[in-house]
Structure formats: C-alpha cells, structure tokens
Design a protein that fits this description.
The protein is of the alpha+beta class. It has helices at 22-29, 32-38, 46-64, 109-123, 139-147, and strands at 7-8, 12-16, 68-73, 79-86, 94-100, 129-135, 151-156, 165-171. This is GNAT family N-acetyltransferase.
Amino acid sequence: MNTYKSFETERLILRPTSEEDAPFMFELLNTPKWLKHIGDRNVRSVEDAKDYIKTRIRPQLERLGFSNYTIIRKSDNVKLGVCGLYDREGLEGIDIGFALLPEHENKGYAFESANEVKRVGLEEFGIARIGAITTKDNVASQKLLEKLGLKFSRTVKLPDDDEELLLYEFQKEAL
C-alpha cells in the first residue's frame, strides 16, 4: 500500500483524508456554507461519507499522489476542515480548494493550510498553474484566493451546472 505525504505548518498538520475521517467529513459536507458555496454531495450518513472518501477522494490520491487533506490543529489534534489540490472535471489543470467547520473560521487556518498546499503543489508536485473556483457571493473565499496570489481570470461553468463561477489563477514564473 502506498503511503502518501502529510505536511505541516506552524499550527497545522495536513494529512490525506482517509476513511477514518468519515464522521468529520459527514459533518463538514453538511455545513450551511459547504452546501451553499460548494454544493450538496448527497452525503446523508457517516457511511455515505466513507463511500465519498473511497470513490471521490481516494482515486485521485492514488492517481496523482495528492488530493484532499484533512486540516488538524497540532495543539489538540482537532480536525478543523479540509484543503487540497483537485483535478476537477470541467476545469483545465489543478484547482485549490478549502473549507472549514464554522467554529474554526476567521482564525487564519484557511490561509495557513491553503498557502502550504499551494507551496507543495508548486514545489513538490511540479504544478505550474493552480486555479481556484468560487461562487460570486463568496467574498471571503475571493479575498483568500487573492491573498494567496491568485488573480481573477474569468467566469466558468462546470459540467452539469448552470451557475457561473469565478475562476482565479496563479501561474508559476518560468526560471
């Protein structure tokens, strides 16, 4: 079995999401902000969350070596949210994304984890261009993407979805 890399920041551990995270993922995927800004993944039980991890998260990790990371606070091992690099259908290249449980928002965890995931994508996985999508009304996400150095590029629509999303992009400078 492959072992996949985990990463650390000053306050956080970012480790690949696994089936043991199913209860946490069930909670996160059903928060009001997840449902509003990311979408309903039809995860209605911990068992559904386990299946979501097996069928939606794990295959990309096995294929590319990176995917969704569970954000864990070092000081008490509490799971705060997720951050990751995604090969998303309908988007060219790799997309960065993040979400936190509501009680952990506005404490710098999203920026700290996303900044590390961006660094890892560029430096360790050799990704030259990182994109991100967000809904037009998710101003907090837009500000975070800009703080990460991504710039608004254009609007896009994902397959089987009529909502126009904002696409942000970061291009690594050629040496």
